[in-house]
Amino acid sequence: MSELTTETKAEKRARLEALGYRFYDDAADWLGLSEDEKKLLDVRMSVTQAIRDLRESLGLTQAQLAERLGSTQPRIANLETGQRGFSIDFAVRALLAMGGEVTITTKLPKRRKAKPATP
Which residues, 6 or more positions from 81, have their beta carbon under 8 angstroms from its beta carbon? Predict the structure, then answer.
């Protein structure tokens, strides 16, 4: 009978990395997304989750929301799961159709003072 080993998570990871396996912190790293792409993905997922949460809190089905928007249930399902192919306009329309409100906050980077030109 073989002995049981008590390998820690860090030890297991180190052993697997030594065998050539790679580990990623999150899906965005695995997909090789840029920081801007990660931020856009976060916005899209936040909006789609808000739509689903609001729809469910109102007791609406996807089909009922689709009817309000003149759309289809599969399109609402795709919207709520963050599938590609929906516009932010459509997402905002969905929120508004359920009585939701949309607030957009932007944050501009701090501007550095320009250095005077040297003659």
Answer: 48
User: How many angstroms separate the Cα of 42 from the Cα of each of 2, 33, 93, 111?
Assistant: 47, 12, 19, 25
Number of structural domains (the chain) is 1
**Torsion sign (Cα): 69, 74, 54, 87:** negative
Given a cut of 50, the residues of the chain with pLDDT beneath it are 1
First CA to last CA distance, the chain? 83
CATH of the domain at 51: 1.10.260.40
Tokens of 56: 């469910």
Q: For residue 73, which of 96, 100, 55 has the smallest C-alpha distance?
A: 55
pLDDT given for residue 86 in this prediction: 81
- Tell me the H-state helices in the chain: 9-18, 27-31, 35-57, 62-69, 73-80, 88-97
Domain limits at 68? 34-104
Any idea what DSSP says for residue 39? Answer: H
Q: Which amino acid is at 10?
A: A
